[in-house]
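Hi again,

Forgot to attach this to my earlier email, sorry! This is the prediction with flavin-adenine dinucleotide bound. I've pasted everything inline since the attachment limit keeps bouncing my files.
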Amino acid sequence: MSILLFAESQQGKLKKGSAELCSYGFALAQQQNTSLTIVTINCENVDQLTQYGASKLINLNVNVDYFEAHAYASALAEIAMVEQANIIVISSSADAKYMGGVLAGKLQAGYVTNVVELPSTSEPLTVKHAVFSNKAFAYTVLEGKVNIIGLANNVHEETTHSKSTDVHQQDAHMDIKCTQSSIEQIQGKATIADADVVVSGGRGLKGPENWGLIEDLADVLGAATACSKPVSDMGWRPHSEHVGQTGKPVATNLYIAVGISGAIQHLAGVNASKVKVVINTDPEAPFFKAADYGIVGDAFEVLPKLTEKLKART
Ligand SMILES: Cc1cc2nc3c(=O)[nH]c(=O)nc-3n(C[C@H](O)[C@H](O)[C@H](O)COP(=O)(O)OP(=O)(O)OC[C@H]3O[C@@H](n4cnc5c(N)ncnc54)[C@H](O)[C@@H]3O)c2cc1C
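Structure tokens for the complex follow:
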């Protein structure tokens, strides 16, 4: 019996949230009175994960340099069997959710996503997880011989431990059924999933020609840009930036909403963010009720001043 944890990386670098995931994995291992093994794939900075109390860290060196759900699930299933893991911890990123379903199928495992804390009971294994776009919590009993916990973002404190971790580099060949020829990433742009800060614009920005204001603020903060649904529906911004219930979920440290009214469908997707700042001309805009900080003001006046002030500080 042991706990296996998969820490994702992208282009060789650990993804944001790995420290939180590993801290959770070790707390879970302590709760279950067992050991923790971390698995990474093609990761160049595994040393960063040796401070979270794991007994072992296996970095798989594989023949693909992009995420492939079925191949990754096969590799993890094999390691889970060798390590006799009864609980597998993964994140709740889009990639991890895709892979988690495949992995659960391979191992005939129980699987719950968006888990927000350590299991409330061990026998049976009962986990609390967010449902209905974070509007409610459910408790689910996992009854598999092996169970997979998909941890939500920003729910567990980061803690380090002095216990030493053995690092193993292991070569593996992945059986890929289809090959991605290349991935183009927009250089220097943070993605909504990985950014610490997201600057998001709504219909209050009046048109796509004004998005420079959002981008300037995002650039100075190293933030990703996002938008409300009507903005992407009208083609002002790409659909990949649409956040909310029917778009991407956002669970960042800081979410800045500009000219967004705060409709329930928008809030459903962003309310897991730690700090929410709202800029809106209408003091009655519903978003102010969900905000930690609010500026009642015109985006066209506030944004340039805010960007200028922040620039002066860097
Ligand atoms: C089934 C369903 C699913 C949906 N899913 C989503 C979703 O995933 N994500 C999503 O975002 N929406 C979603 N919607 C749409 C949602 O209900 C709202 O219509 C939408 O979020 C409103 O977008 P908005 O806030 O940009 O626009 P508006 O509601 O038009 O708000 C614009 C805001 O800008 C403010 N404003 C105007 N001028 C300025 C200015 N100069 N400076 C500052 N503020 C200004 C206004 O006071 C207003 O509050 C969904 C709707 C349905 C029915």
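The helical segments are 18-31, 69-82, 94-107, 212-221, 229-233, 264-270, 287-290, 299-313. The mean pLDDT is 93.

That should be everything now.

G.
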